């Protein structure tokens, strides 16, 4: 297949370096968004350009996604970047940000709008009626062209010194597509009436078409913004971080499910690494009798030595977790990891604290829901002694006094918290003694390293006693697990 011109309508505007340079810029943007793309994948992406029809934009979208992505969760970020680098049209943009009109582009979407847009309410009513018709017909291409017109007519904000701006919310406010649901249901159901499976199917169809229209409006707003400000600048604000890159302390409800799926495999990965380390560890003590017996066959020279089997013990784990409000999101996911690790460690004991400490292992029985366990900690655990503000010094002292044998030479100690003491005593001597008695000790801190020691943070002082690791998101948590 002969490759189309770089300025083909499906390819959109192409970088000065030609199609190859344009693809290289797209791959770099995907990589900067947090999606790992290796050299071999970039080569495969270049190969895709030679086997798909570049005039078929969706073929190109799916073909590049097949070689660049590893997980479904990466697709939303990829789609945003694809729409920026391979926009729907490559026609030049005028000073007002509106692409030059194409009389054939608006077939079936003629609104007969006057030059000055006329009365704004009358314009909105006519466009709203046209939107209802297109949603009933379900023509994706016509709906996309309508979205372009709607953004131009209704989404334009007053011009500023920085250039023309467009906003999707202005379009949605003017058209109010969600209020068309009843009208669309009536049109789809016809005389069959409401109720039953037919209505459920019709409602799902309406939801999908409304979502497609919103997506088309958002894509058109991003395209026009990219024409004004550049793709790179728009990409930084338009692409949401991947779930594994979202800070635990700032995770929204939409990120929680994906974060849970990202944390769950970490325990299995840790177990595999520990098992491999035990298998590859040094053999046990020399078995002198077997070695001498084997040397009789070589004239008394111990060419081959024999060792007693090495006793393998599953490590013990003690988790000391700050569950105060400032680190609630972080403790949620680290306690998920703690629960999953119970099957791989001979003894996992979990302790929670705010300004006092209590053992919460009983809340994490096999099969227990982590969210429910954390809720029970808030209601039933004795973690507040005074005012409910973090007091690391008192919490460490309570832990050492009530459970003096919890940490021993076979124990790995894991502390989870931001190290903010509210200007109270940090309890460094107690922590030093716990670290000395433990087999290994680590501290996971959900705050950026640059903030350690600022304000009431004693993280820099704790870091002199225990190995402190920055752990703000699932990616850093996975890195810690693989190096533990």
Automatic annotation (TrEMBL):
Residues 93-124 are annotated as: Disordered. InterPro entries: UCP010256, Uncharacterised_CoxE, vWFA_dom_sf. Transmembrane segments: none annotated. Pfam families: VWA_CoxE (PF05762). Coiled coil: none annotated. It comes from the Bacteria. Residues 114-124 have a biased composition (Basic and acidic residues). Residues 99-109 have a biased composition (Acidic residues). This is VWA domain containing CoxE-like protein.
């Amino acid at each position: 297949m002969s490759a189309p011109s770089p300025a083909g309508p499906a390819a959109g505007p192409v970088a000065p370096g030609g199609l190859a340079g344009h693809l290289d810029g797209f791959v770099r943007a995907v990589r900067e968004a947090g999606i790992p793309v290796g050299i071999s994948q970039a080569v495969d992406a270049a190969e895709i350009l030679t086997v798909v029809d570049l005039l078929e934009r969706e073929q190109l979208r799916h073909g590049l996604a097949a070689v660049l992505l590893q997980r479904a969760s990466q697709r939303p970020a990829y789609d945003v970047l694809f729409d920026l680098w391979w926009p729907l049209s490559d026609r030049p943009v005028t000073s007002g940000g509106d692409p030059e009109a194409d009389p054939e582009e608006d077939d079936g979407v003629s609104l007969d709008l006057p030059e000055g847009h006329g009365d704004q309410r009358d314009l909105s009513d006519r466009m709203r009626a046209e939107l209802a018709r297109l949603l009933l017909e379900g023509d994706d291409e016509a709906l996309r062209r309508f979205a372009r017109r709607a953004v131009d007519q209704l989404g334009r904000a007053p011009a500023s010194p920085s250039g023309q701006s467009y906003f999707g919310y202005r379009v949605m406010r003017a058209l109010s597509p969600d209020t068309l649901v009843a009208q669309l249901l009536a049109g789809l159901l016809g005389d069959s009436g409401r109720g039953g499976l037919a209505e459920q199917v019709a409602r799902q169809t309406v939801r999908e078409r409304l979502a497609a229209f919103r997506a088309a409006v958002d894509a058109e707003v991003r395209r026009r913004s990219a024409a004004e400000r550049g793709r790179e600048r728009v990409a930084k604000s338009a692409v949401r971080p991947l779930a594994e890159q979202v800070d635990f302390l700032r995770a929204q409800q939409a990120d929680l499910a994906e974060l849970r799926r990202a944390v769950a495999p970490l325990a299995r990965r840790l177990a595999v690494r520990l098992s491999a380390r035990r298998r590859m560890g040094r053999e046990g003590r020399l078995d002198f009798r077997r070695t001498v017996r084997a040397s009789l066959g070589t004239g008394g020279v111990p060419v081959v030595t024999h060792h007693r089997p090495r006793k393998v013990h599953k490590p013990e784990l003690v988790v000391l977790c700050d569950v105060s409000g400032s680190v609630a999101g972080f403790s949620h996911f680290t306690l998920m990891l703690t629960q999953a690790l119970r099957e791989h460690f001979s003894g996992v004991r979990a302790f929670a604290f705010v300004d006092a400490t209590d053992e919460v292992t009983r809340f994490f029985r096999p099969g227990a829901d982590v969210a429910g366990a954390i809720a029970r900690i808030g209601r039933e655990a004795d973690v507040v002694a005074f005012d409910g503000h973090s007091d690391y010094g008192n919490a460490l002292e309570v832990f050492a006094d009530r459970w003096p044998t919890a940490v021993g030479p076979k124990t790995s100690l894991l502390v989870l918290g931001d190290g903010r003491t509210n200007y109270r005593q940090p309890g460094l001597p107690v922590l030093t003694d716990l670290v000395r008695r433990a087999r290994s000790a680590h501290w996971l801190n959900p705050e950026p390293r640059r903030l350690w020691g600022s304000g009431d943070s004693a993280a820099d002082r704790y870091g002199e006693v225990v190995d402190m690791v920055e752990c703000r998101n699932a990616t850093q948590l996975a890195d810690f697990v693989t190096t533990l």
